[in-house]
């Protein structure tokens, strides 16, 4: 684990804080485009071909559609403890996202009439839940529950099948427990194509949401405009700001909680304490030695991780804003005191008793967050991902007459005579 100085090695520090996780992937973009074209042209036939090629060699179309009986069986098969954990998470997600709901509003105009805004949910949403190295029922919850709170009428979940063509039991059980009854065992860019274009088996949706690999990200980028999307999710990342009193054991554990995801997951610590930095390096070695995914985590720490020494916590916060991390932990004596200095982060965890996995599972905010520095302009998945706003305008005759001159003047300045005449036709 490298230890860098923000003062003496600014270029090296900048290199690990800033990274464009969506560049240099031309091959992914080209492959995603080819898959999307095939799904658009050949529908179910293409879905089946790609599923057999990438996931389940003996897959059938019938297996691709999860039946109500299979969902019920999965729900019965999991442990009571898992069912309880799902409901704890779902209840907290529902409570958090209900607070995000926007209300319609109206404002009157002098002389008569009014303007306003109406907020309505999309009719349908497709939820992508990645497979691969880990099956993530928590991701299903963290995307579906905000959509349910938003009022989306139809939710369609897509997830890669297992090698034998079946669905993972915990994923199917989680879907059943929160009332999701439309699940398809199809993954990758082909799933995004099915949700965006529609096939005989998978009807199209209005919004596609949920994280995925580079092929999924490029597929979402390419179908945007035909459907809405939430974001383009890159590898997991955590940035920890720690003072001298922070626990090296906790810091190391939190770094590894992200590093174990994949070889490109980023774990960085910013601290003014050289002694703490040394303690964290030693603690990482102790924990890596007994971590089941220790080899993956070590590779991530060596490739894109680091500990950065800063002059003080204010300087650390400026580097946080440069990085705009997915997850930010403030392991300091006064985390609320630092909060006003933070401008860019997907989720902020304040204090020693708020570790990042709390947000991954049960705290309530969605764990689908902006990555790769996109927290400078993007937000976590929430109710707003699944709703849209309509402007409302209802003028009275007197109000229109009072503002007509401004309208016609602007219209004629733009050379749009018919616009002006449309207003004048109501002034006679």
Please mark out the parts with pLDDT under 50 across 5 or more consecutive residues, or reply none.
none
Number of strands: 14
CATH homology superfamily name of the largest domain: Nitrogenase molybdenum iron protein domain
Sheet having the most strands = 6 strands, parallel
Beta-strand content estimate: 15-25%
Shape assignment? globular
Q: Which percent bin holds the helix content?
A: 40-55%
Number of helices: 18
Which properties best describe this structure?
alpha/beta, six-stranded parallel sheet, 428 residues, Rossmann fold, 3 domains, single chain, five-stranded parallel sheet
Record the SSE blueprint.
Layout: E1 3-5, H1 10-17, H2 26-42, H3 44-54, H4 61-64, H5 68-77, H6 80-98, E2 105-108, E3 113-121, E4 124-128, H7 137-150, E5 154-158, H8 169-177, E6 183-184, H9 188-197, E7 207-209, H10 214-223, E8 228-229, E9 237-242, H11 248-259, E10 266-271, H12 274-288, H13 294-304, E11 306-309, H14 313-323, E12 327-331, H15 335-338, E13 347-350, H16 356-361, E14 387-395, H17 397-413, H18 417-424
Parallel strand pairs: 1-11, 4-5, 4-7, 5-6, 7-8, 9-10, 9-12, 10-11, 12-13
Antiparallel strand pairs: 2-3, 3-14
Helix pairs in contact: 2-3, 2-9, 2-10, 5-8, 6-7, 6-8, 7-8, 9-10, 11-12, 11-13, 17-18
């Amino acid at each position: 684990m490298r230890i860098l100085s923000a003062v003496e090695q600014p270029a090296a520090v900048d290199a690990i804080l800033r990274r464009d996780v969506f560049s240099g992937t031309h091959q992914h973009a080209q492959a995603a485009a080819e898959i999307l074209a095939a799904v658009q042209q050949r529908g179910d036939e293409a879905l089946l071909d790609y599923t057999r090629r990438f996931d389940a060699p003996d897959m059938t179309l019938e297996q691709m559609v999860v039946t109500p009986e299979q969902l019920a069986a999965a729900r019965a098969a999991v442990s009571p403890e898992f069912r309880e954990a799902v409901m704890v998470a779902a209840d907290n997600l529902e409570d958090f996202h209900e607070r995000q709901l926007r209300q319609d509003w109206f404002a009157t105009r002098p002389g008569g009439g009014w303007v306003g805004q109406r907020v309505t949910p999309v009719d349908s949403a497709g939820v992508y839940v990645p497979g691969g190295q880990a099956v993530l029922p928590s991701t299903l919850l963290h995307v579906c529950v905000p959509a349910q709170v938003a009022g989306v009428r139809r939710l369609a979940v897509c997830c890669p099948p297992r090698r034998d063509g079946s669905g993972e039991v915990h994923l199917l059980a989680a879907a059943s427990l929160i009332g999701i009854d439309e699940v398809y065992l199809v993954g990758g860019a082909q799933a995004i194509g099915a949700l965006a274009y529609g096939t005989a088996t998978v009807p199209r949706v209005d919004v596609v949401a949920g994280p995925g690999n580079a092929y999924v990200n490029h597929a979402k980028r390419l179908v945007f405009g035909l459907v809405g999307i939430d974001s383009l999710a890159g590898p997991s990342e955590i940035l920890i700001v720690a003072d001298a009193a922070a626990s090296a054991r906790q810091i190391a554990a939190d770094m590894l909680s992200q590093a174990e995801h994949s070889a490109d997951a980023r774990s960085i610590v910013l601290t003014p304490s050289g002694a703490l930095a040394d303690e964290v390096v030693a603690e990482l070695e102790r924990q890596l030695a007994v971590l089941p995914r220790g080899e993956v985590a070590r590779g991530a720490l060596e490739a894109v991780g680091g500990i950065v020494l800063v002059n003080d916590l204010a300087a650390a916060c400026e580097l946080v804003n440069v990085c705009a991390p997915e997850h930010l932990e403030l392991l300091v004596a006064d985390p609320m005191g630092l909060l006003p200095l933070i401008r860019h982060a997907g989720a902020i965890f304040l204090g020693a008793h708020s570790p990042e996995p709390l947000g991954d599972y049960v705290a309530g905010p969605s764990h689908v967050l902006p990555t790769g520095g996109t927290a400078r302009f993007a937000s976590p998945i929430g109710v707003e991902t699944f709703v849209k706003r309509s402007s409302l305008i209802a003028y009275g005759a007197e109000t229109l007459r009072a503002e007509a001159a401004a309208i016609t003047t602007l219209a004629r300045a733009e050379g749009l005579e018919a616009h002006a005449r449309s207003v004048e036709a109501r002034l006679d």
